Amino acid sequence: MRRHRRAIVEQHWDSSPAAAAERAVLGIINAPVVHMGYRYDSAAVIAPEPALPSTENIELVLDGTPGSRLPHAWVERDGTRVSTLDLVASHFTLLVGPDGATWLRAAREVADRLLIPLRATVIDTPDWLRQVGIPEQGALLVRPDQMIAWRAPTTPPDPADALGRVLTRILACTGG
Description:
By secondary structure, this protein is of the alpha+beta class. It has helices spanning 2-13, 17-26, 31-36, 58-61, 84-88, 101-114, 126-132, 159-171, and strands at residues 74-77, 80-83, 92-96, 118-122, 139-142, 148-152.
């Protein structure tokens, strides 16, 4: 019995193609996907997609889908290399593409209106923007727990109104 458990544990972490095929037969999900690939389907997520796109490849799972964990990337901020995960730092955070100046203004307006801390940061890393599914004018709203709450692939006509409605819904408050 102990040997069987050890084999299952090893199977869970083994990254070889043979192990992936065996996991598929046994219905086991690759360990990194288990640990980092969880997807929320709740009122605190707008348009969640709880189904995993892969049970093997964590990079395919961390794709910017609402309800998924924010993927890490190194980015420049004020001349310092920081992780996208560190940009969140226990606040709601709006991460926007390089053409997202209207999102930055909208975030300030909504934060003032709802009386909440809301950070907004431009990410100018094309590969990361592609990974999370937003073009240069898009935005991701990230919850303080580093889970993606909402993805806006384009800038709507009134981004402050859209962001306010989203945060009001997520926070279950009135006055958005």
